[in-house]
Design brief:
2 copies of one chain form a homodimer. The mean pLDDT of chain A is 96. In chain A, the strands form 4 sheets. Chain A has a 7-stranded mixed sheet, sandwiched between helices. In chain A, strands 11-12-15-14 form a 4-stranded antiparallel sheet. A two-stranded parallel ribbon of chain A has the order 1-13. In chain A, strand 3, helix 5 and strand 4 form a beta-alpha-beta unit. With 395 residues, chain A is of the alpha/beta class. The longest helix of chain A is centred in the last third of the chain and has 28 residues. Chain A has 2 domains: 124 residues, Aspartate Aminotransferase, domain 1; 242 residues, 3-Layer(aba) Sandwich (Aspartate Aminotransferase, domain 2), CATH 3.40.640. Chain A is built from 12 helices and 15 strands. Chains A and B meet through helix 2, helix 4, helix 5, helix 8 and helix 9 of A and helix 2, helix 4, helix 5, helix 8 and helix 9 of B.
Chain lengths: 395, 395
């Protein structure tokens, strides 16, 4: 008699985005003359760069020709793309990698979640709260013991290791989803030193690194000395190049991580060669074009557009004296709403027709906070902030 | 201190294809004037159908436009592709499915391997020998108890359930990789009845179903009464439409499978929404075109080309009185070589410059057998068979 993985039944159904979507839908239906400005979406909205789309189209058309056809490729990615990512790490973060340390995938979400395969279930997993739900859920699916560490106003939603923190694997995300907060070098140094001292592994999610423009802030954890002995980094073209529906990411597993005499890099290679069949050749050609000078320039232009939205929001909140994180090196603004975050959601929706995301949906430490995103247009962002200012000035 | 998944260290390194590749490379280097005909490859060689490649190119180019851009899609696939697959099941196999039962993915390999997530580790897994290594390795990675059941000449390499067979989950692959053997309706009925009686789950790999031309043979396990209560089916466009490097597959999880009151369909949806981010929109547009009348006609033409190769091989072996399976409703021929399969490999390579794959590489029951594939050209296949006949006639 087949026996199910009972851990699945301990998962909380995450109704966060389905609930916000339903409330917006209901409001819109009841108020057709009052269009809602959506600042809750975490998805990009600007089309792909032409250089990238052309590369995909060319590779796609080529697949019908003898010269352009490609069958099975290496599960860890095409050499040309590994090489482009290697060069990007060097120029973007000053980090030297070997090609073998770079694994191309269909996105950071799959890799972050599938990487759990490599560990025994009796590890203690350390996860900051609030959090991107995948870290939590993928470990709950394995019945692992989880320790949440608090993000809050005092630590700027960037929790640091502390004396007495017990754990074996820690997830860090910087720039952070949902808070937009970014670890500085000193913060990451504390985590890397702690991990190396205690034999912990850091799973570092750098999906939003392309939004970092402050040159003192790290793009990659491998900018920190000692990180190649204790950290794995996940990254994605979703936010760097608008690949949310195109699907390509990469994971860096340093060859220097050796645990009990075993190479974590070789274990991930074995996992991927057994349980993955490589990323579409056509999409890998598009990803290669992201890293070309033209592609990179176009992608940076799109990111600058989103960052201008973030600046508009940040300026408004600063002017109003509202506490927030993010918005400078991130597409997310995490503001203190000073009330129940679902009530704040309802108030913004009903009174000024602006939709965001209640912080409590990302964990208990998110209660009293609210997320706005920078993926709308300049016009809508300005209009939303103008309404926001008027509403709260009147309270 | 991070603890690794020790089960990984019980995996046998599969040197099969790296060993055959090395031997061929060494022979070719030492004998530049004697080109080797490769009949060992399991990868397609004919370019994508033009209809399909055009659809990919069009969707790719469109991603640079406001109208054609697509961000995050549903993890379980775009509705248009689920609908196309639903219609294909009806016309190809006479099977009615609901859209919700169809999950689009990046290929059958990922899904077959990731589906293990849904089960407790104290299931006994039943796997035929010889076997596609992914079934075995993905369960060994979880430390599960595995019972191998023998494929052999007596059962035509199509093992059936037997009194006393104990197990909770069974993997079946038909048309089979590596043997090319195909279960008839009666064989599958026996498995479905057994599974329903014992509370077993059948994981059915139908990746080669498009090679079935004998109308009495099932394309899908869901052609068998009762299968929707006990079977999950994995399929892929890799062999149907030459998508080995393009990457798209699908998995059917019937809503009727309820285990201990839980819906397996809902569990897989939860797994995919948490650990997968959907298949590239661009590739899904190509997959949709596979199921168009033009796309399907072109794909069928390519399959007919490979099947003609299989026929050439099968005719030669029949004429020579050599026992084999496959080659009629499959791109694989599994022949009895009557000697150590690695010795047979060396003999063919050295004496007639034909490369195949030693059966023992697929499991202990493969010893004494040999796999040839139909993915070369007509000319090379004919030439290889002519050399083969001469060589063995002279022994």
């Amino acid at each position: 008699m087949v026996k199910l993985n009972e851990n699945y039944f301990n998962l909380k159904e995450s109704y966060l985005f389905s609930t916000t979507a339903r409330k917006i839908r209901e409001y819109a239906a009841a108020n057709p003359l009052k269009p809602v400005i959506r600042m809750g979406i975490g998805d990009v909205t600007i089309p792909l760069s032409k250089t990238v789309a052309d590369a995909i189209a060319r590779a796609g058309a080529g697949m019908a020709t003898k010269e352009g056809f490609h069958g099975y490729g290496d599960e860890q990615g095409e050499g040309f793309l590994q090489e482009a990512i290697r060069a990007y790490y060097l120029s973007n973060a000053g980090v030297e990698l070997n090609k073998n340390e770079i694994f191309v995938s269909d996105g950071a979400k799959s890799d972050v979640a599938n990487f759990t395969d490599l560990f025994s279930n009796d590890n203690v997993i350390v996860i900051p709260d609030p959090v991107y739900p995948v870290y939590l859920d993928s470990n709950m699916m394995l019945g692992r013991k989880i320790t949440l560490i608090d993000g809050n106003e005092e630590n700027g939603f960037l929790p640091l290791p502390y004396e007495g923190l017990e754990g074996d694997i820690v997830y860090l995300c910087s720039p952070n989803n949902p808070t937009g907060a970014v670890y500085d070098r000193e913060g990451l140094e504390k985590w890397v030193d702690f991990a190396n001292e205690k034999g912990m592994l850091i799973l570092f999610d750098a999906a939003y690194e392309a939004f970092v423009s402050d040159s003192s802030l790290p793009h990659s954890i491998f900018e920190i000395e000692g990180a190649k002995k204790c950290a794995v980094e996940f990254c994605s073209l979703s936010k760097t190049a608008g690949f949310t529906g195109t699907r390509c990411g990469y994971t860096v597993v340093p060859e220097d991580i050796v645990i009990g005499g075993r190479s974590l890099n070789k274990m991930w290679l074995r996992r991927q060669t057994t349980k993955y069949n490589g990323t579409s050749y056509v999409i890998q050609k598009g990803a290669e074009a992201v890293f070309s000078p033209e592609g990179m320039a176009e992608c940076r232009k799109n990111i600058a557009y989103y960052k201008e939205n973030a600046r508009i929001m940040a300026d408004t909140l600063t002017k109003m004296g509202i506490w927030f994180t993010g918005g400078v090196n991130s597409p997310y603004i995490w503001l203190k709403c000073g009330m129940d975050s679902w009530e704040f959601f309802d108030m913004l929706l009903n009174e000024i027709q602006v939709a965001g995301t209640p912080g409590s949906g990302f964990g208990k430490c998110g209660e009293g906070y609210f997320r706005l995103t920078a993926f709308n247009t300049h016009e809508n962002t300005r209009e939303a902030m103008s309404r926001f200012e008027k509403l709260l000035a009147g309270k």
